[in-house]
From TrEMBL:
Record's keyword terms, sorted: Hydrolase, Metal-binding, Zinc
MF GO annotations: hydrolase activity; metal ion binding
Role description: Counteracts the endogenous Pycsar antiviral defense system. Phosphodiesterase that enables metal-dependent hydrolysis of host cyclic nucleotide Pycsar defense signals such as cCMP and cUMP.
CDD domains: metallo-hydrolase-like_MBL-fold
Gene3D superfamilies with a match to the protein in the record: Ribonuclease Z/Hydroxyacylglutathione hydrolase-like
Required cofactor names: Zn(2+)
Catalysed reaction equations from the record: 3',5'-cyclic UMP + H2O = UMP + H(+); 3',5'-cyclic CMP + H2O = CMP + H(+)
SMART domains: Lactamase_B
The protein's name: MBL fold metallo-hydrolase
Species whose genome carries this gene: Cohnella herbarum
Residue ranges constituting the Metallo-beta-lactamase domain according to the UniProt record: 39-273
Length: 288
């Protein structure tokens, strides 16, 4: 059955907490060999009754602390990170007048360190996550966890008690015919936030479909590294497959996002590391 729930509009702020450096050609086929900056974007969402919600968190200073020694130090050497303390999610929200205790939910798209880096800064929040994403990393030892981009110490010590799989906290819905994905989850049962499965980059990765007063938006996490890659059909270099859970699924997801954009040109796709939406100096808050 097609999803016909009334959509509750939300307020959407796009910010970034630090950035990392990669040669451009790794994330954009045919790009330059020179390093490019990729913001660690996160979304701050205000629901009319549920309050403030984060979609991912970007980096925090704990990333630097936890990657001082092997094997985790390999992570930061291969992916150099730049972060000033005032640019962490908790500090930026404070500048906007949003207190830590006001963040009622943190929705994690997947468990790479640049998405969970600030999780411990929100002890009052209820965490929601895709079950298969956590299952893929939760029991990994240090070496395989490093390869998977996961640093367990970034999560709250009580994560298993304060977190809940999205599959248990939401309602499964069928999506409209112009959405080339299946298995959407209506997180609050009001059509405001729809979790969309976007496999490939990381096991169980999800995006978030929502509407504001002015736009319809898909926060598509790392299903693409930039809007330019999607527009120009320039997926990552094969070498990027080293950090992917499933290269074939990544390309299928990438192609489906392009198909969706053609079928629904008013939909705004927001990759988590796209400089068109996230300012690497964190001086600008993008509102959609």
């Amino acid at each position: 059955m097609t999803h016909h729930l009334r959509t509750v509009p939300v307020e959407l702020l796009l910010l970034s907490a630090g950035y990392c450096l990669h040669p451009e050609f790794v994330t954009l086929r045919g790009g330059s060999i020179r390093p490019a900056a990729y913001p660690a974007g996160f979304a701050c969402i205000r629901h009319p009754s549920r309050g403030w919600i984060l979609f991912d968190t970007g980096y925090s200073s704990r990333f630097r602390e936890l990657t001082m020694s092997l094997p985790y130090s390999l992570y930061r050497h291969l992916t150099p990170v730049r972060l000033q303390e005032e640019n962490t999610a908790v500090r930026q929200l404070a500048k906007l007048g949003i207190g830590v205790e006001e963040v009622r939910y943190v929705i994690l798209s997947h468990f790479h360190a640049d998405h969970i880096g600030g999780a411990r800064d929100f002890p009052s929040a209820r965490f929601l996550y895709p079950q298969s994403a956590y299952d893929a990393v939760r029991t990994l030892g240090p070496v395989p966890a490093t390869r998977a981009g996961f640093i367990a110490g970034l999560l709250p010590d009580t994560f298993d008690e304060i977190a809940q799989p999205i599959e248990r906290a939401s309602m499964e819905i069928s999506l409209s015919d112009d959405i080339p994905f299946s298995g959407g989850r209506d997180i609050f049962g009001d059509g405001s936030l729809i979790a969309i499965p976007l496999p490939g980059h990381a096991a169980g990765q999800i995006g978030l479909l929502l509407s504001t007063a002015n736009a319809r938006v898909l926060l598509c996490a790392d299903a693409a590294w930039s809007s330019r890659a999607l527009r120009e059909n320039r997926p990552p270099h094969p070498i990027a497959g080293i950090v992917m859970s499933d290269r074939t699924a990544y390309r299928e997801t990438f192609d489906r996002l392009r198909k969706w954009q053609v079928a629904d040109p008013e939909l705004i796709l927001v990759p988590s590391h796209c400089k068109e939406f996230f300012d690497i100096d964190s001086e600008e808050v993008h509102r959609l």
